[in-house]
Amino acid sequence: MYKFKYFTEEDLEKVIAFMKENSFATIAGMGEQYPVATHVPLEIKIADQPHNKLQTPDSYRDHKLYFTGHIMKNSDHHKAFLKNENVLVIFNGPHCHISASWYTTPNVGSTWNYITVHAKGKIHFGDEEQTKKIVEELTNKYEKPDSEAAFNKLSNEYVDRMVKAITAFTIEVESLDNVFKLSQNYDEETRQSIIEHLRKNGSDDEKAIAEEMQQRIDIPKLSK
Prior knowledge:
By secondary structure, the chain is of the alpha+beta class.
């Protein structure tokens, strides 16, 4: 990753909240000739008791973090993950262009602000009962109980046929890293100028980045 300490979010709760908000993730692994990847919604879970020790940052240690989801059987990525259980999971969030013309000291290069989290771990596949349970959890997360698409409204015949074509998985995370690149390497006046321009431009990503930047200016003031 593009790594500088001042672009790293040390608060695990904020990182997990980001992953939950941006849970449609990319899972990448190694195929026969090229890397393979798939894009799926994930459930992000933390065990009540510590198990594995997540690698850096230090504040992430002593937590057991894992993801659950499901994919189609016999796809290129399924076959690759069966041969090599080591995967990289990427969570992407808001991102936008930052013009150097907004800086208090211009005549330098423009840049791009963004938030992303990388999780490395091992993927394990479940049986049909586990697949049914994970599909039920994910369906009920997005469908209201009275929806015609709620899990309990699906016929047993349909569910049984579906779980034969897909497979549930669990990824136990071994290392977690992130980049919250929000112009932390610039002075407060420059950051406020960037925030004002982003809010004025008004796209969803620009407003989201502006809000994240503003939070990181306001928090130190509140702690004084």
